Every structure is written in C-alpha cells, then in structure tokens.
Amino acid sequence: MDLHQKITELKKQKNAVILAHYYQVPEIQEVADYVGDSLGLSQKAAETDAEMIVFAGVHFMAETAKILNPDKKVLLPDLMAGCSLADSCPPDAFSTLVEAHPDHVVITYVNCSAEVKALSDIICTSSNAEKIVNSVPKDVPIIFAPDKNLGKYIQKKTGRKMLLWDGACIVHEAFSMDKLLKLYKEHPGSKIIAHPESESHILETATYIGSTAGMIDYVKKHPAEKFIVATEAGILHKMQQEVPQAVLIPAPAEEDNTCACSECAFMKMNTLQKLYDCLLHETPQIEVSEEIRKKAILPIERMLELSK
Ligand code: SF4
Question: Is the minimum distance from the CB of 84 to ligand 1 under 6 angstroms?
Fold first, then answer.
C-alpha cells in the first residue's frame, strides 16, 4: 500500500477525521476528509463526531479544534508548524493593550494563540470579519488584532475606525507590486484576486478581495478567465480542480526568483509521511489548559453563532 492508502485505512480504524487547510501540499489535500479555510475548518471541527482530529494546518488551527473538542485527541503532523501572524501578537503585550481600553470590544482574527483568544470578545476569520465588525453597535469602540492589513481593509469596508494591532503575515506581505504589475502586463485581461491579509497597495489592484473560500467561489463564477492569485500558492490545487479550464497564475513574491509564487514555510512543514506517522503514533498532540480553554471557547462560539 502507498502512503495515501495507509492513511485512509488507519483513519477508518481509528475513527479519525483529517481536516486540511487550502495551503497544504496537494497530496495532503487529496487524503483529507475536508479541505477548507479557517472558518470552514472551525465549523467542521465543531461538528465532527470522529474520535480523533488530525489537523493538517498550523498550530493555532489545531488549537482552535482542541478548544472546541476538549475530550478528543487533536493531532498536528508537525508541532513546529507555527504562524508569523499569530507570533506577531504575544499574549502579555496584547493583554496590556486590552486592559488599557476596557470600553473596547476585542475582535481577534482566528490566526492567534489560545491565550490571545482568551483575551478576546469575538473571533473572526477573513470570511466573516466584515459581518462580525458590523455586529458591534456603532458607538462601541473596537480593538482589531492581530492583522493590520485585514484590519485596514475592514475599516474601509465598514467605515468603522478601529484600534489596530500592528501584526502581519510574512507570506501576504511578500508580494511584489512591481512584479505583479509586470505579470499583469504579460497577461492582459487577467483578473487579480487577493486575500485581505495582503498590503493595501496590492488590494487596490484586485478585482476581487476575499477569503480563500471566497476566492475559489469567485473563480467558479468566472470559469473561462485568467487569474493572478495573491495568496499562498497552495490554494491553486483546489482552485484548479474546481475550475479546470481557468488559467491560474500565482502572484509573485519580492524575493522569489525561482517559482514566482509565495508559499508559507509553516504550512509546508506538514508532509504526507508526517501525517501518517502522527496518525499511527497519535502524536504530537495539541494540549490547551482548561483555564485558557474555558475563556477561549466563548469568543469562538460567538463567531460560529454569528456565522450561521
Ligand atoms: S500564510 Fe501567513 S497567516 Fe497563514 S499560516 Fe502562514 S504565516 Fe500564518
């Protein structure tokens, strides 16, 4: 049996579910029970009746699944698969900001640690951030963390002035404007679609801005077009499967002179072999202290409720 077959057998034996993010390598997406963006993955994690969850994504995602499923084993193929955006918001410093603004509602993007979630009022993802911000009464001030680019984009969309945490994702900040415009000239008539974690000047060039799931939906509605895709390049696998006739071109990163695409090194730490090993040995497991979990689950549940 090859690894794919072995994983499929093992997950049946162990009553495990494999949840994978769009940014995972194609062979992991192929073996997963569900591939999605952060919101979809949180919803699947909340509703699964499997006994074990293997989370093919990064640490904060598996942690969110554990917060929602304290009695289940939640496994992450590589425990070192972190996130630069989550790391840009240390809990101690964030706590200081929150304590200094007791009248503010704290909306936190899901890309953060369990400790930061525990300090928040509502979690959001790029799919629902606008709706969540709009759910807060207009006269109530908001802290938005940790992604300043998503925060600026949502400020523009909602007209709400928010206190923004100064965090960012290294992948989405790496897109090169010069190379993007050069690529656009080489592909006249193409449409630029971008994830809102990208910087404002990149977003200003885009025909469509949205979450990974939103970008896939957009391409499905315009199947015969050519797209330059400004987000992590792993999304192209699912997108191309959904819309085989579309021409998909990854947006170029500043430092990238080889494959002209932008990949998240953290997401790519997970491999099919590591996925198999973690399912076989049931390690590494994600643990969250009960004290933090009890606080962190409240803003996640508020998000899930508001996203129905
Ligand atoms: S792409 Fe950016 S935000 Fe997503 S996991 Fe990687 S570092 Fe974090």
Answer: yes
d(CA 152, CA 168): 12
Q: Give, for 158, the enclosing helix (H) or strand (E).
A: helix 148-158
pLDDT on residue 260: 42
Residue nearest to atom 4 of ligand 1 (CA): 83
Tell me, using a 6 A CB cutoff, whether residue 89 lines ligand 1.
no
- Residue 250 pLDDT more than 90? yes
- All structural domains of the chain with their residue ranges: 3-80+267-287, 85-170+293-306, 177-250
Q: How far is the CA of 83 from the centre of ligand 1 (A)?
A: 5
Once rounded to an integer, what is the mean pLDDT over residues 282-302? 97
Q: Looking at the domain that runs over 3-80+267-287, which CATH code has it been given?
A: 3.40.50.10800
Q: Is 62 in the pocket of ligand 1 (CB under 6 A)?
A: no
| Cβ count near 10 (within 10 Å) | 15
Is the CB of 267 inside a 6 Å radius of any atom of ligand 1?
Answer: yes
pLDDT at 261: 55
Quick one: pLDDT band at residue 191, thresholds 50, 70, 90?
Answer: very high
Residue 294 parent element (H or E): helix 290-306
| CA distances from residue 165 to 85, 148, 308 in whole angstroms, order as listed | 11, 6, 27
Backbone phi and psi for residue 106, each to the nearest 5 degrees, phi listed first = -100, 110
Sign of CA dihedral 166, 168, 170, 172: negative
- For the domain made up of 85-170+293-306, the CATH class stated in words is alpha beta
